[in-house]
């Protein structure tokens, strides 16, 4: 489950050999550790050079506000001489652009900072969503930000990333989810999120303690006996939640181990059973008093070329990966217990976005998850809830460790960070979407893929 | 500009060597030639196994209707014994699915046909767009089709492709653009379109002669002196249009050559000039009596990592690739000459979708094009017009021939058809979107990329 190549090429002799041969040299990613600073250095906030610049003032004030970060977070408003500074993050506030010409100034300002970005640094753009109701020039400028940020993400090295926050027109910069998204994308928690955009579509959400945002919340995680599910359970517990871990009876021992480790409870359950939703609610409420967060992580693969597909393999994958989620969500949304700004987070996959050879059944199920979260999010909004999906790319797990060597190596390196992610990277994204402050992010799909090339 | 590798591995000895070494063996793609049959064999129409199946009846009737194809087009409604048949196309009508479970029957029916698909065969799904207003199960089923078709596209070999037609809820199967899209995707004209969806969003559009759909129309193509632009001009002329070819004065001789070849007229023009739109309209109307189709193909690259970007390189690319288009469109949409179901087609790029290392300026401009076509399409709809973008992947041109060998080889092979496209492939997509029958396809982006891996 480990990628020994990364430590090899970051060592003295291995590094020299790799450099000489022109081999990819993935960096060790900066990941969250308790007590570490939010960013790898001071933060620079750059704004529009054509608008009023007011929006970048607001963002700078947000960064400096009480409780946003440690009191010693340095925030700058102009590019300094590059000798003495190593930026932890550069935030590019582009909410005021109205024509593609307006991108020139900020892009060149950003350009002048890239050599001074610290290892594990962050570029975050903040802009508005392009829609068909914009003037064509406005939509062109807004969508242009996307091309810029994805290209910058492909250029950065040293474990640095570039991501975007996109606000719909009726949401302003003071929405709780703007701050939450900015914090997440600037922090080490988003280590494997690269080249992506997070859309903030409403002012819903409430700020909370940044260190233990899930205090007082009860979470359920399916498929939690091992791998990504276990990491999600541990991360939600770290963030303060009481956690119910769910898995099939055959995984009972591993499941009990996870439950003990995080002081949660275990529920052995076949999620495809007609009454699975009722059993989940009953367990959570009777043992923990409520149910607030449900993470649909359980999933299976039964890979075959479609030409060789069997009804058994097709139906099993669709039953576990999507039909069970639909049935459980239906039960949850009819339950009076699931009404306190509840959260549904479903695991999708880059295969569900781009398709994958030999995975028609899996890709159909994961595309189904992507289709599901939009209307589910709309229904959940009635009780200040959200439904979102997280789409992992190549993650180092027991499952991927069994892939043929060459396939695994190609999948690892075909991303901007030139390596696979870890289960914790997916778990951090889930925990972020589960947090009270992320209530304005709804019906979306967040890729955790290191900007994998795999696309549409 | 040619990919000698394709003919090598399709030859006797070269083919054996490639097979032994496990090298990619891209097929020669089936491309349009006058008089050739629409498909490479009979067409099979499969429908929902859970709904009424009425929708697949309608599609079968459409295929058999007068004028849709040659009178000898064979249409079948059930999978035959595989001994004697080699399907030219399999059309999977999934408009009636309401739950992911409903995908099982049609997917397995499709599975049973794949070994009988002719070289250059086609799989086309027809389904409805998943929206946030659907029931979650309906949206899951509809989006699930996308995962299925993209995976099937990655599985097909022999120059076969899989693509989808997606109808919004208020559009029925009798809309002119459904037939037009089906014909395009089944035909050899879509050789390099793979793993994509075409959304039909309205019943606009009118059917026309399939062989010369642009008879009586006047088209303008910018950047038409060579490469993709010249191919577009030739293809629009082949389809019946009178064509104005536009390029910079420095390319005047090549431009005149193209104009002579297609019996069109040449206009030497800097498209970034403030009055470029007026000059284009004036030329087209005075020489040809009207202006109906404008293809924004002119584009430049000035590649540099953003860290090394100069204002000159940034601004030049934005000025030509997006600002000029915005200004010309503005002039066109205010002109009384551009009101007869007019068409705007802009060249985007997969770089504008996914970003590209060293192309922040180019990617921002091409993302800008993608942002622009949605509101422009909405404005154009007032006069039964449309605005769409075509996003080429790796196309064999003089420009790509100058790429370093290894970069070019990787770009060529990282697609489902394992080869670059030709300028004609882009031109066919443009001609399709320019046709009167495509009037229901508006504000969209059509990738012509052989299902390149390059994604988001």
UniProtKB/TrEMBL annotation, chains A, B:
<protein>
    <submittedName>
        <fullName>3-oxoacyl-ACP reductase</fullName>
        <ecNumber>1.1.1.100</ecNumber>
    </submittedName>
</protein>
<dbReference type="GO" id="GO:0004316">
    <property type="term" value="F:3-oxoacyl-[acyl-carrier-protein] reductase (NADPH) activity"/>
</dbReference>
<dbReference type="InterPro" id="IPR036291">
    <property type="entry name" value="NAD(P)-bd_dom_sf"/>
</dbReference>
<dbReference type="Pfam" id="PF13561">
    <property type="entry name" value="adh_short_C2"/>
</dbReference>
<dbReference type="InterPro" id="IPR020904">
    <property type="entry name" value="Sc_DH/Rdtase_CS"/>
</dbReference>
<comment type="similarity">
    <text>Belongs to the short-chain dehydrogenases/reductases (SDR) family.</text>
</comment>
<feature type="domain" description="Ketoreductase">
    <location>
        <begin position="217"/>
        <end position="393"/>
    </location>
</feature>
<keyword id="KW-0560">Oxidoreductase</keyword>
<dbReference type="InterPro" id="IPR002347">
    <property type="entry name" value="SDR_fam"/>
</dbReference>
<dbReference type="InterPro" id="IPR057326">
    <property type="entry name" value="KR_dom"/>
</dbReference>
């Amino acid at each position: 489950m480990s990628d020994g190549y990364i430590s090899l090429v970051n060592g003295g002799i291995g590094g020299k050999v790799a450099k000489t041969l022109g081999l990819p040299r993935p960096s060790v990613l900066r990941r969250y550790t308790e007590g570490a600073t939010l960013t790898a250095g001071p933060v620079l906030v750059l704004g529009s050079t054509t608008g009023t610049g007011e929006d970048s003032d607001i963002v700078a004030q947000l960064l400096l506000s009480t409780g946003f970060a440690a009191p010693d977070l340095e925030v700058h408003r102009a590019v300094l001489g590059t000798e003495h500074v190593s930026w932890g993050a550069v935030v590019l506030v582009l909410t005021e652009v109205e024509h593609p010409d307006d991108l020139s100034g900020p892009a060149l300002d950003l350009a002048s900072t890239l050599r001074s970005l610290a290892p594990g640094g962050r570029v975050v753009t903040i802009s508005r969503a392009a829609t068909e109701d914009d003037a064509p020039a406005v939509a062109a400028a807004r969508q242009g930000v996307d091309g810029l940020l994805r290209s910058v993400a492909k250029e950065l090295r040293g474990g640095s990333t570039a991501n975007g926050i996109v606000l719909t027109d009726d949401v302003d910069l003071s929405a709780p989810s703007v701050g939450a998204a900015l914090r997440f994308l600037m922090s080490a928690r988003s280590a494997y999120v690269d080249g992506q955009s997070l859309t903030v579509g409403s002012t819903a959400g409430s700020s909370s303690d940044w260190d233990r945002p899930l205090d007082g919340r009860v979470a359920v995680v399916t498929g939690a006996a091992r791998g990504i599910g276990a990491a999600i359970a541990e991360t939600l517990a770290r963030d303060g939640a009481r956690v119910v871990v769910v898995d099939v009876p055959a995984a009972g021992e591993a499941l009990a181990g996870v439950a003990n480790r995080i002081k949660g409870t275990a529920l052995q359950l076949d999620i495809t059973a007609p009454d699975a939703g009722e059993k989940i609610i009953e367990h959570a409420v009777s043992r923990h008093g409520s149910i607030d967060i449900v993470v649909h992580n359980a999933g299976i693969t039964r890979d075959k070329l479609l030409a060789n597909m069997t009804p058994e393999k097709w139906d099993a994958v669709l039953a576990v990966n999507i039909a069970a989620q639909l049935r459980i969500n239906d039960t949850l949304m009819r339950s009076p217990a699931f009404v306190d700004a509840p959260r549904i987070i479903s695991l999708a996959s880059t295969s569900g976005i781009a398709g994958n050879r030999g995975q028609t059944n899996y890709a159909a199920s994961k595309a189904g998850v992507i289709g599901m979260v939009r209307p589910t999010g709309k229904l959940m909004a009635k009780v200040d809830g959200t439904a979102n999906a997280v789409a992992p790319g190549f993650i180092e797990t027991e499952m991927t460790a069994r892939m043929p060597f060459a396939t695994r190596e190609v999948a690892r390196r075909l991303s901007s960070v030139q390596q696979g992610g870890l289960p914790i990277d997916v778990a951090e994204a889930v925990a972020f979407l589960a947090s009270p402050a992320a209530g304005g992010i709804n019906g979306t799909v967040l890729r955790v893929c290191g900007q994998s090339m795999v696309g549409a």
